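At this stage, I wrote out one protein's amino acid sequence and its C-alpha cells, and that material follows here:
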Amino acid sequence: MLFKQLFEPISSTYTYLLGCEETGDAILIDPVLPTWQRDLTEISKLGLKLVYTLDTHVHADHITSARTLKREAGSRIAHPAIDALACVDVPIEEGTPLAVGRLRIDPLFTPGHTDGHHAYRIGERVLTGDALLIDACGRTDFQSGDPTALYHSVAGKLFSLPEETLVYPGHDYEGRWVSSIAQEKTRNPRLGGNRSLESFVELMNGLNLAYPKFIDYAVPGNRECGVCPPGVPDNLSQYCDQIGESRQG
C-alpha cells in the first residue's frame, strides 16, 4: 500500500492518500477544497489514478474537494450513508468494506462529534477523523453532537482496537502526525486513563467553545459534496480559494 499524509494549513486538516500498488487505484480521505490541485499532482507523481474520495463526516471547518475532484479526475464520491447526501455515488456504512484495488477500508461508525461520523480502519492504521485526535477529541456542541455517543465511540469502539494500531487524526494544531491506540488510551487528557462517562460528559459540556467561524458556509457546502456557497466574506475566502503552498507530512 502507498500511504501519504497531506496537510492543509488553513483548517489544519490532514488528507490521506492511499494507493494500491497492484492496480494503481487511489483514494483521498478528507480532501480539502483549496488543495485539490496539489492532491492530484501527488497522485500523478505516484503513477496512480484517483477512483474515490471519502469523507469522515460533514465538516464544519473546511469544504471538501470531493465534487471538484469528481469533475476534474472522474473519481466517485463515497460518504457515510447515514448523512443521506444526494450527491454521493457510493454510500458507506459499518460492516461493508470499501475496496480500492486490493486495499480494504473498513468503516467504523463513530458518532458523537457529528451524528454521522465514521472512522476508517486500514490494516494496522485507523483514520479517526474528528472523533479521536492526538491528546484530544472533537467537540460535541453542534451538528447533533453528543458527548455520550462520542465516549462510547472512542472508549468503547476505537479503544478496543489492538493497542499497536496507529492513529491518524483528521486534524492537528501542534505539528503532530500520528499516535497509537495505546498512547491515547493511556494519556489522552479527555478520554484516556479510564475516564468515566460521567466525567467526560461534564468536561465536554463545560468547554464553552467559540462558535466555529466557517460553519455556516461549510456545512451547507459539504452537504452538496463540496460547493463554496455564495456570500462567503472576504476574510474567509481562503477556505474556498486555491492556495499556493500547503505543508504536508
User: Anything to note?
Assistant: The helical segments are 36-45, 66-73, 147-157, 181-187, 197-205, 215-222.
